[in-house]
Fold this protein.
Amino acid sequence: MTKPTVITVTGVPGTGTTTIVNLLSKKTGLCLINTGEIFRELAKEYNMDLSKFSNYTKSNPKIDLELDTRQLKFARKGNVILEGRLSGWLMKNNNINAFKVLLTADLETRVKRIMGREEKTYDTVKFEIIEREECEQDRYLKIYDVNYEERSHYDLIIDTSDLTPEKIVQKIVDGFSIFED
């Protein structure tokens, strides 16, 4: 990967995006930008904890637009991996040449993965996943009129349910090599 590069990785909670982008960054040497980290930075700038800030964003679309601005700044510099729900769509919508990846997994798998890292019951995790996804979808439809899981936004879609992180990263690297040619 020698020319300026943008790779986006999108997926709902429990699909493995964080694990995958960390491994992908190590393998490729590309800088990793996690929109969750940008969101946390914005919460600090607004002097709010994450819960309060999340509620604040529901009625303040300017926060999502600020996230977009910061992602686009990094993307225009290149040599970056962007992890975020709207990263792929954002690149496509702004005519930025990027290799856009969507990670998927069935709900059962996602719940079990999250249970493995958080001390919560199956029912609690399942409820939280569904609630979060509905909230995000509603917000993104209102602000952008977009469904971030719309598959036409992506160059590569990987069901991570039964794959190791290493195999997923290799699929992305292989897919990117074809994309780059």
Remarks:
- Residues 6-180 form a domain with the Rossmann fold fold (CATH 3.40.50.300).
- Residues 56 and 118 are 25 Å apart (CA to CA).
- The chain has a mean pLDDT of 89.
- The chain has one domain: 6-180.
